[in-house]
Specification:
alpha/beta; Rossmann fold; 2 domains
Length: 249
């Protein structure tokens, strides 16, 4: 089993040691970074640190060195953003820091996205994402969207304060089969259930899969509102979306 000392980059080692608390996340990240190249670890470290210029330069260098676009995206950009997502969830960083890291990731993806588009790779599926009606918080949702796109999904972002009818309209317009709903306020969480019920009312419930998340949301609450899955963070959101995509394919 890989150990922390197997990770070449000191910054990454320190981030895992200092900020990751859940054993499964520590194990997962040690396994991930211990197998990635030093350059991918540098990209991830710069992204976590919010260093947009360095991420931009290192991504360009990696492509020039012949590193594949998917490797850079998965082992550098998404891996780094995964740590940022955990730190945000646990309260070690806040919205401004996440936005800075997100900007750094966008700088790297600016090099990657044209290559992916030119490769003709079909998206895994289409996901409709929105913060439920009455809730104006979107940083967690936006982080999920970024990783979903990096993970191969086409994502339609409905923004915040999204009523059930808008989710339904988006599903019909884009032929999507996966819906992600987020909420940060306990007072708006019941609107997740209302959205699921609205899909039942129009006969679309069996055609879609719902995933829910947000700071106050729990797996038990997800079951209670009739969702098909719960994601505790952005990385879990991507894993869940891939699982649900198989179910509806």
């Amino acid at each position: 089993m890989p150990e922390l000392s197997d990770i070449a980059n000191q910054y990454i080692r320190e981030e895992i040691e200092e900020f990751l608390e859940r054993p499964e996340e520590i194990e997962r990240n040690i396994a991930l970074f211990s197998r990635t190249s030093p350059l991918m670890q540098e990209i991830a470290a710069a992204l976590i640190d919010g260093d947009m210029v360095t991420v931009d330069q290192l991504t360009e260098k990696a492509l020039e060195d012949g590193v594949g676009a998917f490797e850079i995206m998965d082992d550098g950009l998404i891996a780094g953003m995964g740590i940022v997502g955990i730190k945000f969830r646990e309260g070690y960083v806040f919205v401004p820091e996440v936005l800075i890291s997100a900007r750094a990731m966008k700088a790297g993806m600016a090099h990657i996205e044209p290559i992916l588009a030119a490769s003709g790779v079909e998206p895994i599926g289409t996901v409709i994402m929105g913060t439920v009606q009455g809730d104006l918080h979107d940083i967690g949702k936006n982080l999920c969207i970024m990783l979903l796109r990096g993970g191969g999904f086409s994502v339609i972002d409905l923004g915040v304060n999204t009523p059930p009818a808008q989710f339904i309209e988006a599903v019909r317009e884009h032929g999507a089969h996966i819906i992600g709903m987020s909420a940060l306020l306990t007072t708006t969480m019941p609107n997740m259930a209302k959205t699921v019920e609205a899909f039942k009312d129009v006969g679309l419930r069996e055609a879609v899969r719902f995933m829910v998340g947000g700071a106050p949301v729990t797996p038990e609450f997800g079951k209670d509102v009739g969702a098909d899955g719960y994601g505790k963070d952005a990385l879990a959101c991507v894993e869940l979306a891939k699982k649900l995509a198989v179910e509806v394919s």
